[in-house]
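[09:14] KT: can someone run the structure on this one? pasting the chain below
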Amino acid sequence: MCPPAQKENSISPHYQQWRLIKDKIAEYGVVAGGLGVIAAIVLIFFYLLYVVFPLFIAAETKSVSQYELPEKMLGQTVFLAMEEQNEIAVRFTDTGTAVFFGVANGETIAIKNIQIPDQAEIVSFAHGSFDKGTVVYGLSDGRAVVVRHQYKVSYPDDVRLITPELEYPLGEEPILLDPEGHALIQLTIQVNEEQGTLVAKTSDNRVLLSSFVQEESMFDDDVALERTDATLDVTAIDINFMLLDKEQRNLYLASEDGDLSVVDVRDKAQPEFKHKLEVLAQGDRITAIEFLTGDLSLLIGDSSGMVSQWSIVRDEKGRSSLQKIRAFKVSDQAIGSIAPEQRRKGFMAADASGYVGIYHSTAERELIREKVSEARPAALALSPRANAFLLQSDSGTVDYWTVENEHPEVSMASIWQEVWYESYPKPDYIWQSSSASNDFEPKMSLTPLVFGTLKAAFYAMLMAVPLSLMGAIYTAYFMAPRMRQLVKPSIEIMEALPTVILGFLAGLWLAPFVEDNLVGIFALLMVVPLCVIAFAYLWQFLPKSIRHKVPEGWDAALLIPVIILSTWLAFFLSPGIETFFFNGDVQVWMKKEFGIGYDQRNSVVVGLAMGFAVIPTIFSIAEDAIFSVPKHLTTGSLALGATPWQTMTRVVLLTASPGIFSAVMIGFGRAVGETMIVLMATGNTPIMDLSVFQGMRTLAANIAVEMPESEVDSTHYRVLFLAALVLFMFTFVFNTLAELIRQNLRQKYSSL
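[09:31] RB: done, structure tokens below
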């Protein structure tokens, strides 16, 4: 047999060189892998930041051209509007003419005369919803002419051609509103595909309402209009502004002094006065009033330069009232014009000095404030896409400006603070990102999602941490080696279970089971520990001959039948407990006594299902940390007279504390990032409720649900990436702090 020195000398230089090369390859591979992981994390961070950054880019506006008012000799402008492509604009004049002209240069495209009877004069004008294009002229003989401007798009020779047209949705003949023939000095109108409603104030201070409903004949294709007339029982002498919402339900009548009345006109034959209130401070005057898109809120501009938003809200008892939601300070000059966006909850306001401001109501943001004209504004038109506007001034010029304003809905307030949304009784944290209608008010608060993420993780950790750590302590320190070889792999293999399967079982089986056996679930928390303690207490009184037959470290096997029987006992006793203490139905009892509701998919289900998924992670890492404590520390402690339990608590746990802490933090990170279980077991409702019987929605689940449905580069799309960035930053910061604490623990107890 060769001595060691001879064996070492027998290794060839070629083999030694090859081994050094492999060592270097492994070294560089490990370094490259570590740097690659860091690079991947950095790239993920910057990609998320790249997608999110446009949300916070400031809006911009740019002057394109200025030109003389087209066809100035045809009269003064009473209404100005633009079509969707920003190519053609129209101005309706006080002489009954519609002048269509090019937006960019003011070149006249078409002049169309409104069919005004020769014997009547125009005394008033009003417009309906901006997206419908309906306007109405009030005449001196009690009649009204309703007209709609539209734009037909065609592509001759593959070139887009936009042709402006006028149509008469209620017929070409003027509509007689006042049989007595008095002049219509104030008007408002709404016309949709099925119904049209006109409200007019006459020169003798009466308020008349006429409704027209389309009726198709059963025998031919003729369409008839069924008319309903009514006279409103209101004092009309001080009415200066009239607005009717597009659903033709609520009529708003306002005076310059700030008196605002709301009339319910759902029953067109019998309108009902609802309430009246003051909307301005003493001394201020209403100078402009318009609907915010959706017609759920009023935008009221006053002489002090403020634009306030008022909306009908319902309180908890179902009573409705008009309340001021928010206000925007435009300037110190009177507001001259307000133009709402047609597809978002934004608006534009122009004051008497020529300043124009663009605002978003929900985000409570001032996006743009620009000096557009030196003269007093006479008319304002905002593009349907809100990417351009026209401002006509008293000097007879028209200014054309473009607007870059892609994501006005997002602000720090709308994301993190309570927001008072339309029709809501009070400010609240709401996530409701999309709807089928442009009238929808996006609600993109991330607060309920962050709350749901932390709530789900808390209940999962509440179940997982005690069970996994106690199991790891017993398995690593007290359990027999052969039994440990069975238990540890069995628990670790649980981690291989797909979370989608766990979520599926939690949603379809566990949630109904918990609902039907709620008392039994909570009885387990008392019955099982008491039975285990009772068994352990009685075990010590058994003869030693019996107790010594159980090998050391196999004691836990005796608890298996105890736990099974105590679990059966808990569910067996639960019907009697529920009948005796909770009148036979614990859910009804909780609702009646404490007002606590119960959702089938709630935090209890999440805690059980996600806790089950997290247990293997925490158990495996913690058990390895405890088992790896050097044996000389435990034997030394025992030799000095410490008991096994004292050795465990004062030596082993302290030495293994960095590993145990890492196990808990990794488990927490797993719980925070879990998607499928919380998606299928929580009801996925973005609410903020501390109750254990209510569901939640997490950041990860929200991204998984809504990302496939979001339009690329839309505000919704980028806010979802913002949620991903928040989740990324949260886990990064939390794990960094956890690593600092772990290193501190390692340094502190490394001397043991």
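[09:33] KT: thanks! The chain has three domains: 76-278, 283-442, 447-515+596-749.
[09:34] RB: yep, looked fine to me
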